[in-house]
């Protein structure tokens, strides 16, 4: 053992959402616990002086604090906090070391943006409850009529001098998603959707211009699905507005940076054909910066008129980028193979220096050796992944029991970073003597649009043989013991684990965390139904079956399962509802297959409570120990 305990994994704290002051002197970040012990996730705001890296906590209250935003003059920090009414966030202002609320909106504030006009803050908030709403609540007259009184985030303007909040009636009943002001202090770019519903809303996006001085708006037209990450820049032909969105027409596709020339309304895909995937677009006073998932690593580029110009490359991931207006200083969350993500600061061209150390308790832990894998699929496609060896072992000490952990998404990826999390993760198993394979099959992020698109309607096909090819390689190299193979995964990775044991008897144990077992049912009940329909290839209302999704649903192959399987699921999961695991459980019970089914009360798709996270970590090891290391 390496000294790694379940408590060390879940009791840590991680930095989130760094925000650089415009003058580059200070940085604020949120410090959040990995797990929750009460009803609320208590977070903290920290300030770092970038001249000497001295850090201090900015606030002292017990609260959920989030979304730090600086004023244009760098003198004031605004943030959200629920210190007065837990669960209901208000905008607070930190100035001269003291924090005070500047809103008292009964519905709470969802997001905020300090504007160039120093006395105005743009807010995103739902409507306040009316007297009729209060009466209905008292009388329990709370029948939900779908489509009626659906919550909508609306654009509102706060005047800091008077405390008065106004709601411009310019977007009708549309749900406002994101705001970005032009760098010269001009209009706001506003991204809206027809609904806040996850299944319907992201496919109905439109862009608008809003003038905060006149209160008028202009419709710029529709945008591609899942649009986000707005950024302005100026070019020879005037102002441009960019965003990251899915490449049309299929919902399961790689992301792209889209460029809308505001005057001409001409829109272009600025990253078409690139073998990497944009994840963030970050506004400056000149050309915006683009973060690309690039295989196992990350590339930072500048969006020049001729296309993206690479500025620097970073191992693993680079997340939640923040940049000074002049584009000279950036900060982001990034780590290494053996160190968790921390805030790092520097030039866009690198290198970045670490200015936080939020997990010192891991400094003395010995981790398993991690190395990238590169191999080819059966059809010749180049693939990558990671191999993590048991702690203290080298490949020549093999063969080892091997657990393959499939990633979620499928539009996600394994990056070359520390693989230690509350869910089944490589370093947690490596500490118990397992080798772990982390494959990046087709359908994932980091290799361009076509790579991601290739699984639409074909889940479990080539992506499955991609994974098997990597396992075969590790068996051939003497790393993996072919008689002691396990497979695990969560969400789409849970689908892959459930799929695997219906296709082969090679695995002696499997773990399925919040996994997809029936694509038709998920399209009908999951919160991202149309996205799931694109993956599964059909819906139940496509006519009399059999349907294409039946052929790629693990439950259809339950009679073939001979592998003992552990099913884990959150009771309140709306992304992949509990019924997915319940369905598989009943099928396995019907056919007499060895399995356990564990339900975590109060939990959604991501398990939050400390005791539940501890249970998952311990149960994961115990399950694989039982079947792979008897």
UniProtKB/TrEMBL annotation:
<dbReference type="Pfam" id="PF07676">
    <property type="entry name" value="PD40"/>
</dbReference>
<dbReference type="InterPro" id="IPR011042">
    <property type="entry name" value="6-blade_b-propeller_TolB-like"/>
</dbReference>
<dbReference type="InterPro" id="IPR011659">
    <property type="entry name" value="WD40"/>
</dbReference>
<feature type="domain" description="Peptidase S9 prolyl oligopeptidase catalytic">
    <location>
        <begin position="426"/>
        <end position="628"/>
    </location>
</feature>
<dbReference type="InterPro" id="IPR029058">
    <property type="entry name" value="AB_hydrolase_fold"/>
</dbReference>
<dbReference type="Pfam" id="PF00326">
    <property type="entry name" value="Peptidase_S9"/>
</dbReference>
<dbReference type="InterPro" id="IPR001375">
    <property type="entry name" value="Peptidase_S9_cat"/>
</dbReference>
<keyword id="KW-0378">Hydrolase</keyword>
<keyword id="KW-0645">Protease</keyword>
<keyword id="KW-0720">Serine protease</keyword>
<protein>
    <submittedName>
        <fullName>Prolyl oligopeptidase family serine peptidase</fullName>
    </submittedName>
</protein>
């Amino acid at each position: 053992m390496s000294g790694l305990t379940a408590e060390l994994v879940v009791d840590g704290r991680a930095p989130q959402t760094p925000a650089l002051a415009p003058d580059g002197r200070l940085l604020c970040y949120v410090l959040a616990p990995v797990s929750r012990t009460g009803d609320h996730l208590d977070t903290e705001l920290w300030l770092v002086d970038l001249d000497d890296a001295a850090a201090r906590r900015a606030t002292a209250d017990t609260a959920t604090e989030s979304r730090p935003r600086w004023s244009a003059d760098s003198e004031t920090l605004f943030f959200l906090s629920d210190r007065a009414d837990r669960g209901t966030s208000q905008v607070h202002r930190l100035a001269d070391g003291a924090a005070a609320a500047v809103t008292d909106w009964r519905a709470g504030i969802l997001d905020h943006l300090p504007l160039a006009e120093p006395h105005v803050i743009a807010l995103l908030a739902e409507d306040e409850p009316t007297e009729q709403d209060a009466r209905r609540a008292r009388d329990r007259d709370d029948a939900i009529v779908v489509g009626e009184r659906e919550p909508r985030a609306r654009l509102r303007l706060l005047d800091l001098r008077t405390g008065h909040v106004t709601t411009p009636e310019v977007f009708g009943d549309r749900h406002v998603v994101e705001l970005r002001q032009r760098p010269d202090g001009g209009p706001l770019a506003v991204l809206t959707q027809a609904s806040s519903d996850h299944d319907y809303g992201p496919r109905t996006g439109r862009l608008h211009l809003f003038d905060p001085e006149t209160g008028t708006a202009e419709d710029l037209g529709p945008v591609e699905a899942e649009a986000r990450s707005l950024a302005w820049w100026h070019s020879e032909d005037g102002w441009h507005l960019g965003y990251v969105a899915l490449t049309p027409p299929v919902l399961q596709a790689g992301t792209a940076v889209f460029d809308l020339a505001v005057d001409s309304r001409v829109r272009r895909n600025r990253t078409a054909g690139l073998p990497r995937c944009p994840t963030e677009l970050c506004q400056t006073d000149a050309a915006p910066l683009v973060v690309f998932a690039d295989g196992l690593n990350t590339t930072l580029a500048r969006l020049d008129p001729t296309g993206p110009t690479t500025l620097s490359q970073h191992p693993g991931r680079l997340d939640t980028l923040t940049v000074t207006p002049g584009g000279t200083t950036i900060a982001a969350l990034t780590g290494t193979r053996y160190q968790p993500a921390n805030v790092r600061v520097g030039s866009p061209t690198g290198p970045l220096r670490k200015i936080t150390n939020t997990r010192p308790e891991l400094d003395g832990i010995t981790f398993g050796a991690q190395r990238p894998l590169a191999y080819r699929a059966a059809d010749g496609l180049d693939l990558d992944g990671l191999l993590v060896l048991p702690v203290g072992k080298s490949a020549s000490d093999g063969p080892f029991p091997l657990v393959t952990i499939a990633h979620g998404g499928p539009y996600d990826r394994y990056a070359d970073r520390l693989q230690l999390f509350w869910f089944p993760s490589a370093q947690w198993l490596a500490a118990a003597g397992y080798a772990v394979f982390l494959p990046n099959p087709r359908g994932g992020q980091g290799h361009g649009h076509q790579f991601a698109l290739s699984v639409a309607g074909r889940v479990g096909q080539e992506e499955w043989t991609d994974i098997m090819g990597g396992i075969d390689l590790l068996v051939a190299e003497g790393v993996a013991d072919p008689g002691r193979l396990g497979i695990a995964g969560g969400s789409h990775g849970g689908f892959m684990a459930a799929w695997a044991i219906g296709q082969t008897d090679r695995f002696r144990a499997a773990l399925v965390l919040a996994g997809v077992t029936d694509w038709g049912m998920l399209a009908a009940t999951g919160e991202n139904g149309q996205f799931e329909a694109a993956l599964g290839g059909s819906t139940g209302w496509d006519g009399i079956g059999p349907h294409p999704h039946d052929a790629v649903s693990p439950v259809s192959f339950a009679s073939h399962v001979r592998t003992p399987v552990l099913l884990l699921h959150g009771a309140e999961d709306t992304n992949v509802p509990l019924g997915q695991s319940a369905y598989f459980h009943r099928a396995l019970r019907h056919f007499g297959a060895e399995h356990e089914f564990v339900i975590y009360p109060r939990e959604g798709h991501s398990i939050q409570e400390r005791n539940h996270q501890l249970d998952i970590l311990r149960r994961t090891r115990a399950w694989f120990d039982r079947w792979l290391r008897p």
